[in-house]
Amino acid sequence: MKHVVKSLYVEIKREEYEGLRARVAELEALQQSAGGVGERATFESWVVTQWHGAVFHRRDALSKHDPRYGQYVHDVIQNAWVGWQARASINAARSEAATAHRRPNPAHGAPKPKGHNPVA
Predict the structure, then answer these.
(1) How far is CA 45 from CA 53, 62, 70, 114, in A?
(2) CA of 99: how far to CAs of 35, 43, 108, in Å?
(3) Sign of dihedral through CA atoms 95, 35, 29, 67?
(4) Predicted local distance difference test score (pLDDT) of residue 1
(5) Among 65, 78, 90, 119, which one is least packed by beta carbons within 10 Å?
(6) Can you state the angle between helices 75-100 and 37-50, rounded to 10 degrees?
(7) What per-residue confidence (pLDDT) applies to 80?
(8) CB 31 within 8 A of CB 100
């Protein structure tokens, strides 16, 4: 019995992990499609506070099919941007996971869904 419980626990944790990985991938894709404008502006504002005179030239003259298109020319800023995006994705995934665990539970006084019949 103990082995079965442990096996079920491992399976549930694996499913949660895979779900989070999928959500992080979705968030990254969404951020790329939206251009990450809000995150990029926040990032650039932060960089200026840390590195006065920072230059934010980007590789926008390249073909859009070039993997470096849109990257910062300065490698230190580009690497910091990649780290910033990773942090934002992780925080968004954690926030999503925390919210998922706080959904209303009808058994604890939350409004019951329409057609709810506890006897059936």
Answers:
(1) 12, 25, 18, 48
(2) 25, 25, 17
(3) negative
(4) 66
(5) 119
(6) 120
(7) 92
(8) no
DSSP the chain: -HHHHHHHHHHHHHHHHHHHHHHHHHHHHHHHHHTTHHHHHHHHHHHHHHSTT----B-TTS-TTSTTTT-BSSHHHHHHHHHHHHHHHHHHHHHHHHHHTT---GGGTPPPPTT--TT-
Which candidate, 42, 71, 69, 68, places its Cα nearest to that of 56? 71
> How far apart are the two ends of the chain, measured CA to CA in Å?
29
Which of 69, 72, 23 is closest to 43 using CA atoms? 72
